[in-house]
Amino acid sequence: MEIKQHLRLTQQLVMTPQLQQAIKLLQLSQLELINVIKQELETNPLLEEVKEDNGQEILENLEEEQGLSGFDWENYLNDFNLKESGLEIERREEDTASWENFVSKSPSLTDYLLWQLNLSDLTEREKKLGEIIIGNLDNNGYLKASIEDLAKQASVDKEQAAQILYKIQQFDPIGVAARDLKECLLLQVRHLGIDNPVVEKIIKHHLHRLGKKDLKGIAKILKVPIEEVKEAVKIILSLEPKPGRLYSDEAPIYIIPDVYVYKMDNDFVVVLNEERLPQLRINDYYRVLAKDNDLPSSVREFIQNKFRAAVWLIKSIRQRQKTLYQVACSIFKFQREFLEKGVSHLRPLILKDVAEDLGLHESTVSRVTSNKYAQTPHGLFELKFFFNPGINAGQNNVASASVKENIREIIEGEDPRAPYSDKEIVALLYKRGIKIARRTVSKYRESMGILPSNQRRKII
Q1: Which CATH number does the domain housing residue 210 bear?
Q2: pLDDT tens for residues 363-376?
Q3: Is 82 part of any domain?
Q4: For labeling, which of 138, 217, 230, 384 is most exposed (least CB within 10 Å)?
């Protein structure tokens, strides 16, 4: 047993808090970044917001004073060398979109029904049962509990529970508190005073056939002309199968584009959206105060620590914007056909293509495209949308999103009375130079939520 010393040389990646912050900023969306900046403004007294970005000279002077000027900001995440993109890039403030960011809170279905319950002529015990019934409704307004369970929970008999349920079913929106689709539609028919026996018969006994659009079968069973069935179906289609969805209390989600792509003459211009991004600089007062030698050491140390944090944040934000700008340029260089012709002309693209184009790591490209959106001439898209694996569709590889868009275009242009089958879609795609199997068409159609041909056929 003896103690010895060994000299060993190793290399390892140290994730400092500052580097972790820089990587985190890459992943943030525009709104999230704005919130982070606002939090830093509240907690770091050395930071202040200015309308014009005139803090560069101050930063350079402070870096020299604090010994930070030697840090290689350009390479702290990666070697960012933008190659020739073939796109003209410029920044401009005009032509930006507007958003309605302020909306009043709509009442939820529960709130709306409880309000009507409190205005109704019911006893306190009956209102208690009514609250239990309303509390057991789903987002679409359907009752998810049995009469027996409701009666037991409210300590009343089954008949009383059924009577209160019937009263709530007369509340607005009509059809609410129904236990299934059949009851929901019948409540609306009776409330509207629709006196059509064919309508009630279809709702009561033939909804499954209506789902298959088998109007001839319904007419044959009911022994009525097909015209009467069509007229009844028109009435049924005018009813609301989900009465509660008009009162959804889900909060609206607003998307602010991080990148704009404009068409100017025969070229496309990529512009970063920095309209709402606060411009930061170091507060002049604290810059002067930091030079005061009479300050207590604890105060000077506090100011220096806050100063370094402020400098790092400003530099990290600038590097984030630069990286986002470069990645967007590279993406739209590869996807120029999309900019010119639309989604159906997306080309296969993977993270590795952009990473190699810019000399970045794939993980950096992945982070910078997460939760970022681009406003293009063809609409608003997440940057990750432009990465699509290629599929073998004949002589050339085609992006899966492009194939889906071609399928969507074919279906949108079909005769609604005689929609294309998957086999026919395969033949039409082949004419467009896309050769894929029928099962692939079926898989892509289902992934887009498009029904098969027998369910897409218009019955009216």
Answers
A1: 1.10.10.1330
A2: 889 888 988 999 99
A3: yes
A4: 138
